[in-house]
């Protein structure tokens, strides 16, 4: 019984090997995340007599190199939530925080939780790529929001509220009509310095060139509004450059997002559960791949409660003696990215209100009862995940074994 505790960091890790009753097999030592060092570690673990189990913290993506390589070497590897390690008994009054101490603590945790350790499952390349793309997608979406707000803040000083002129949906390449309009008519004087007829003709040609629908009444409305607006920044080359740069940055990230969205859908379509997930209400070619990316292979969850706990939408419990709290907040200990995606799915259901969908019916019932927003959204996410788990697992079990 050999407990291998690994404190993982970027590019290197601290390793300690222990046996029960505090017997030190190998004092803490450092390894690099290189082929030679990992192979040396595998040889060392295999040379130690008895069964060995390796435990490391599930920290970001740093642990994946070791977990993947050690699993490929047919060693038992378990990746543990860092909070479980942190909350594990220190058995000391001293407050010690070092890589060596952490490696020993993880090894002690391994011995204590030996029977309950779950083996790390190597994510197949397709799912790993999909999850990586989804994280990149979220990263660029945050940047898009920031860049959009930045452009609005600048354009309000030259052409106030121009972002509210059009409600056309974004195109497949991510471009939006108001952004294209602001790129050409970047200052209110670009409109009102023309005559009304001249602007209408100019706007008509712009719509034709950009392949937007032209409306004469809309052009007249824009022109009349422009005459009343008060800009702050002057109409000169410096202001034009500032706005052009903001527009270019927004368009660039929008194009990246849409290409990622398309690629994610193409990648997700290669997964076996794709048709089942896409058939669920509230899920489309954008949210479907995001769900599959964050949930991963449902077969790794032993029951429905496990998948809701993974998402952090499982109801909490607070009981003591005869006391039992009726309404307990959810744990929120799981994947925040998955919770966000689930909330987006719930939002779609509320907006589309499919009457035959059990999740929407459940949410609608909670809303009718006067439940707060986060209560009915979280409850809906919980129910959706349970249905997702059941449908996907049933479908996968019906497929012929490859």
TrEMBL record:
Domain Transposase IS116/IS110/IS902 C-terminal: 276-360
BP terms from Gene Ontology: DNA transposition
Start and end residues of each Transposase IS110-like N-terminal domain: 4-160
Entry-linked InterPro entries: Transp_IS110-like_N, Transpos_IS110, Transposase_20
GO terms of molecular function: DNA binding; transposase activity
TM stretches of this protein: none
Protein's name according to its UniProt entry: IS110 family transposase
């Amino acid at each position: 019984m050999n407990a291998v505790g690994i404190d993982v960091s970027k590019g290197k890790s601290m390793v300690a090997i222990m046996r029960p009753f505090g017997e030190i097999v190998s004092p803490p030592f450092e390894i690099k995340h290189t082929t030679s060092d990992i192979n040396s570690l595998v040889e060392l673990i295999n040379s130690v007599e008895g069964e060995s189990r390796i435990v490391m913290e599930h920290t970001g993506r740093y642990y994946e190199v070791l977990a993947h390589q050690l699993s490929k070497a047919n060693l038992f590897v378990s990746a543990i939530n860092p909070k479980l390690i942190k909350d594990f008994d220190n058995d000391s009054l001293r407050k010690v925080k070092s890589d060596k101490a952490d490696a020993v603590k993880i090894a002690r945790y391994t011995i204590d939780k030996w029977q309950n350790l779950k083996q790390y499952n190597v994510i197949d390349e397709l799912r790993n790529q999909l999850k990586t793309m989804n994280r990149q997608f979220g990263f660029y979406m945050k940047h898009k929001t920031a860049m959009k707000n930045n452009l609005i803040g600048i354009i309000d000083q030259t052409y106030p509220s121009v972002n509210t002129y059009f409600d056309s949906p974004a195109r497949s390449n991510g471009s939006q009509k108001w952004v294209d309009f602001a790129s050409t008519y970047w200052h209110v004087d670009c409109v009102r310095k023309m005559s009304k007829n001249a602007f209408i003709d100019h706007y008509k040609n712009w719509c034709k060139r950009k392949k937007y629908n032209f409306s004469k009444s809309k052009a007249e409305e824009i022109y009349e509004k422009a005459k009343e607006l008060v800009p702050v920044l002057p109409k000169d080359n410096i202001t034009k450059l500032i706005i052009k740069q903001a527009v270019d940055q927004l368009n660039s990230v929008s194009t990246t997002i849409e290409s990622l969205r398309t690629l994610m859908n193409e990648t997700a379509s290669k997964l076996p559960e794709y048709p089942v997930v896409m058939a669920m209400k509230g899920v489309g070619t954008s949210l479907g791949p995001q769900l599959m990316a964050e949930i991963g292979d449902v077969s790794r969850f032993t029951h429905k409660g496990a998948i809701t706990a993974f998402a952090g939408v499982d109801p909490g419990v607070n009981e003591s003696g005869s006391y039992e709290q009726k309404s307990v907040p959810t744990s929120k200990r799981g994947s925040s990215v998955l919770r966000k995606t689930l909330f987006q799915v719930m939002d779609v259901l509320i907006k589309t209100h499919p009457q035959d969908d059990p999740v929407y019916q459940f949410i609608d019932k909670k809303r009718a009862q006067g439940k707060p927003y986060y209560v009915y959204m979280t409850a809906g996410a919980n129910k959706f995940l349970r249905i997702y788990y059941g449908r996907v697992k049933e479908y996968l079990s019906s497929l012929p074994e490859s």
